[in-house]
Give the backbone structure.
Amino acid sequence: MAVAMMALASASARAQQGAPPTPAPSPSPSPSSALDPGSPLAPLPDIGVDWPDLATAPGAEQAAQGERAEIAADIHYSYTVKGLEDARNDLLRQRFDDLSTLKAHEHDPANAAQLDRRAREDADLLTALLKAQGYYDARVDTDVSVAEGKALVTLTAAPGALYHFERVTLAGVDQAGAKSADVTRAFGVKPGDAVNSDAIAGGTAAVKTTIGEEGFPFAHVGDPQIVIDHATHSATLDMAVKPNGAKTFGKIIASTGKVFGAHHIQEIARFKPGDPYDATQLADLDRALIQTSLVSSVTAKPVPGATPDTVDIDVALQPAPPRTIAGELGYGTGEGVRAEIDWTHRNLFPPEGGLTLRGVLGTQEQLGSIIYRRNNFHQRDHILTAQVAAAHTKRTAYEAKTFSLSGSLEQQTNIFFQKTWTWSLGAELVASDERDVIASTGEPRRQTYFIGALPTALTYDGSDDLLNPTRGFRLGARVSPELSLEGKAFGYARVQLDASAYQPVKPGLVVAERVRFGSIPGAPRDAIAPSRRFYAGGGGSVRGYGYQEIGPRDPNNDPVGGRSLNEFSIEARVHAFGNFGVVPFFDAGNIYTSGLPKLTGLRYGTGIGVRYYSSFGPIRLDVGTPINPQKGDSRIAVYVSLGQAF
């Protein structure tokens, strides 16, 4: 229109200057038609722009304005997606729902401009998602309609043909020799497969991981190059893979962050110099170093070794605070309130030689101890411990003032590296002044015991979780040969066997069972120090009874312990809602004066517990009651602690 106005102005100027007029290419309209505003305009020469169709343009514009006027104000809307039947892919629909602008604002009123913009954004999104699945001819149309005061946005997809790979080439993979087949198999994408971006990305990551696991630390994996052929609905893929030679492990270099020296890092590592390089071993070393709690971050990377066929590992460590103060508070019927506080310096004697000062203050127990603990002692997860402790323990059965020296070497399990087998070898020297009563008469007595023991333990853990198992089983055995001096020297052995099993019945319900047997052969009960006998009852034993309250009793109705025991427990761990669970339980057990346990005179307890599943393990609250109590047993027992009962 602007061009037309300029042409008219030029013609007018020429007429005023006396220039001859330009001949019209068609007859001029009659005076009457020239004055008719509804008559067609005369064509203008050499402009190249047509006049608008005055008969139709205003009507169409008015119709569009009328359509938009229906949703000029904010109204609610819904949306639907059609045409995805030929591209059945749950992941595609899930991704669309996660990223959809229409879905994100589905419950918010919108006007015409907002709906139009959201529809176009989602159409572009769906088109991109379809192409990522191999539908390179995909097209998505949008439509907005209004009915009964509510808008409906419709996305209609036309996926088109699914493109497939005609050729897939991993150039250079053959340099990996016999391991090239494993690398190629890891990629997974092959001729005939759909051109799927997820498969390509996953295959590329798998190649990078596998080639490192196969011993090529300096391998280079290029980006996939894909060429699409729209005429044949096919594609080709080329990706460069350069192994750059297989290597073996050389030495470890501790370049920065002198938390540990290279020698101790090598003790923690599961690989040794000369082993074939495996990238998964570096990830394992990273986790193990973090698990020491002395390292906040780790970077372990391969660097060229002293010889062309070796690779050294450069380990950079960032130290974490080495000191920790921890506390614990618990309560149990029969045990009373118990508070514990620890102060630990985990690297006072490098490497990983920690010192812990521990104190316990409770209604029935007071303790102070100094503990030396060396983690990863010459080997991963081997722990050397030495302890000196002084304790005062007051139970219903006895009162003891004890001084002890002990040490152990053990292989422990933890939540980072749950082990199938664990063991412990130890030695203990104890001097204990103990007060109890003569079982036959009830007369009080005081005796001093000097005890030497060699406690050992072996445990098999076939469960799926250390703190909250839901399937599998556990077996454990503890044997402690002991030499006791009280008047004269005599020997005996304390033996205990434990087993537990866990079965998921249905989602949210796990049935757990436990059995325990104990025996002390070699000496009569009354010769054994009261603190070394077997007792039953309490939160980790037969719930419903007070701590150590089950078993034979003296004339004062106080427990005296025994030489053997058996315990049985079953509970249903029900996930109720959120992080909470409910646990009904049934326990049984008894203590015997004989050297071997019997199945007679069992005491039964039942009750219900509540579990709160925190990030660091279940917090347990159990309330139990005895079914066949002895005289003096409380009707209600309460236990609060961290972790499941077994």
In short: The longest strand covers residues 488-506. The first helix runs from residue 2 to 16.
